[in-house]
UniProtKB/TrEMBL annotation:
Class of enzymatic activity (EC top level): hydrolase
Protein's recorded name: Carboxylic ester hydrolase
Domain Carboxylesterase type B: from-to ranges: 21-544
Keyword Disulfide bond appears in the UniProt entry: yes
Record GO terms (molecular function): carboxylic ester hydrolase activity
Enzyme Commission code: 3.1.1.-
Organism: Leptinotarsa decemlineata (Colorado potato beetle)
Similarity comment: Belongs to the type-B carboxylesterase/lipase family.
Transmembrane segments: none
Coiled-coil annotated spans: none
Presence of the UniProt keyword Hydrolase in the record: yes
Length: 559
């Protein structure tokens, strides 16, 4: 290659890169061009600040709008995720961790223009409110972009940084949820510059992301920021998505760092002290406090560092019980798509602590009774616990793995997700699904067990999002590819038309997905063949309804 040819090539490349510019009120951005696995081009604008860095005096405070910048911001990469508890989803996340992490990514299938008006899908990652990231390697948008929607992914604070709370107005908590909300406000203000329609925003998320979606639907401050919601394997009434011992835990962190304080009077002193601690040290200590204070089963009793019900104050995110709010329609009444995998807790079989966990249940029958029932009488706890045990098991848990897994799935995920759909169907359109397709793309390496479903928690996400080890759909069986195309199209149809199957097509076997109604719970079962079914979990779900009705003490927070 001669020098003149090289100069032409360099000039052409430089012009192409420089030409992918977007100007928003905060300043100019430079993006880059990417391609999906099928060779379809899209445009990526990454690591855009949507709030001021939550450091120093902004630690444990609601997010504030970002500053403007001069020149052109390089938005062609993302190398920051929020500090977090663990990195079992993606080891590379540990290389990105930074307290300065409130950034948003925008991916558009067409060259950005204010003349466009594309639907927008706003993704909230899961990870138990303890970990996760919006980085390209963790939440790749490739599949979804092929359906002609804009995809937005957002970092939000997790762990103690996002959910430490003292039960008062000093450290009210829910900072991670407030970050998500701030990101939605950013979308309303800026997405038109990328070709998106701010009136056609759909929020979606999986696991803790699905629970976050439900919290956003409930929060008065999020009203008007989106027109539809998709909650995958999550709800704000699943028992693990609500923190119960937050005040004690917050002060335990202070004590572990050498500052014992009175939890009844010293919230302001705790806040001032914690703001002086280096971020990595605070994360290390809060992680250890988390480990030291594990409940017997946090999945049914409430995880540590999760959302809380705040006292009334100007920037409160939620101030009332979640269950009561949904039951009475106190939420943004938008169309909802919600569902679950066929056996959410199947992954427990490969957990190292599973034998110890089931031994604890065998030794104490009252552990079958979730704390959200608010039963305090020991004799009644034993009675109710034995009743629930007998629905699933004939003897000890260690002798019946299938019954154990079914119980854990229902107690921590499915009963609440079904109930959420049932309650909200009184006030808005609700589409319910069960993801039953077990394929290589989902990572279905087992172990499996007779008598239980075959799709564990998070498998369905692999059919719509790409990950760091993604090698392309062509490397998977044709039924995996078909299921991915179906699931992706259902979600993007919902974002476009507020209906996952707006018309009969061969892709969906000419089925029309019916809405859930209060007196007719129909849903879509997603397997190799699609099918319309009725009453998920059947008789066992009805037993859960009855035992809560007869024994739980109102008001309910979760279910």
């Amino acid at each position: 290659m001669n020098i003149s040819t090289l100069l032409v090539l360099v000039t052409t490349i430089s012009f192409a890169v420089a030409d992918i510019l977007v100007t928003i009120p905060n300043g100019k951005l430079r993006g880059r061009k990417e391609y999906s696995q099928r060779g379809i081009s899209f445009y990526a604008f990454q690591q855009i600040p949507y709030a001021k860095p939550p450091v120093g005096e902004l630690r444990f405070r609601e997010p504030l709008p970002p500053d403007n910048w001069n020149g052109i911001l390089d938005a062609t990469y993302n190398d920051k995720s929020c500090i977090q508890f663990s990195n079992y989803y993606n080891a590379n996340i540990s290389n990105y961790e930074n307290e300065d992490c409130l950034y948003i990514n925008v991916y558009t299938p067409e060259f950005p223009s204010t003349n466009l008006s594309l639907p927008v899908m706003y993704f909230i990652y899961g990870g138990g409110f303890l970990n996760g990231a919006a980085n390209f390697e963790y939440a790749g948008p490739h599949y979804l972009l092929e359906s002609g929607v804009i995809v937005v992914t957002v970092n939000y604070r997790v762990g103690a940084f996002g959910f430490l709370a003292t039960g008062d107005k000093i450290i009210p908590g829910n900072y991670g949820l407030k970050d998500q909300q701030m990101g939605l406000k950013w979308v309303q203000k800026n997405i038109k510059y990328f070709g998106g329609d701010p009136e056609k925003v759909t929020i979606f998320g999986q696991s803790a992301g699905g629970s976050s979606v439900a919290f956003q639907v409930m929060s008065k401050g999020s009203k008007g920021l989106f027109r539809a919601a998709i909650a995958q394997s999550g709800s704000n009434i699943v028992p693990w998505a609500y923190q119960r011992s937050y005040k004690t835990l917050a002060f335990k962190i202070g004590a572990a760092l050498g500052k014992p304080l009175n939890e009844d009077t010293d919230s302001d002193k705790l806040l001032a002290f914690l703001r002086t601690i280096p971020a990595k040290q605070l994360n290390t200590v809060s992680t250890q406090v988390y480990v030291d204070n594990l409940f017997i089963d946090q999945m049914t009793d409430g995880l540590v560092f999760t959302p809380v019900i705040e006292p009334e104050h100007e920037t409160a995110f939620i101030t009332e019980n979640m269950y009561e709010a949904i039951e009475n329609g106190r939420m943004t009444r938008v169309p909802l798509m919600i569902g679950m995998c066929s056996e959410e807790q199947l992954g427990k079989l490969s957990d190292d602590y599973f034998p110890t966990e089931i031994q604890n249940y065998d030794n104490d029958i009252t552990l079958f009774v979730s704390r959200n029932m608010h039963i305090t009488d020991r004799n009644k706890l034993i009675q109710v616990g034995q009743t629930i045990h007998d629905w699933y098991l004939k003897g000890r848990l260690e002798d019946d793995k299938a019954g154990t897994i079914r119980y854990l799935s229902d107690a921590s995920f499915t009963r609440a997700i079904i109930r959420h759909a049932e309650l909200q169907s009184k006030f808005s359109d609700v589409y319910f699904y069960e993801f039953s397709y077990s394929g290589q793309l989902g990572g279905n390496t087992g172990p499996f067990i007779d008598g239980a479903g075959k799709v564990k928690h998070s498998e369905d996400l692999n059919y719509i999002m790409t990950w760091s080890n993604w090698t392309g759909l062509n490397n998977y069986p044709k039924d995996d590819i078909l299921t991915s195309d179906r699931y992706r199209t259902m979600l993007t149809n919902f974002a476009k038309y507020l209906n996952p199957t707006p018309e009969k097509t061969s892709l969906f076997q000419n089925l029309i997905w019916p809405k859930v109604t209060p007196d007719n719970f129909q849903y879509l079962n997603i397997d190799t063949n699609l099918s319309i079914q009725k009453n998920p979990r059947g008789e066992i779900y009805q037993k859960w309804l009855k035992i809560y009705e007869e024994n739980a003490v109102r008001p309910l927070d979760t279910f």
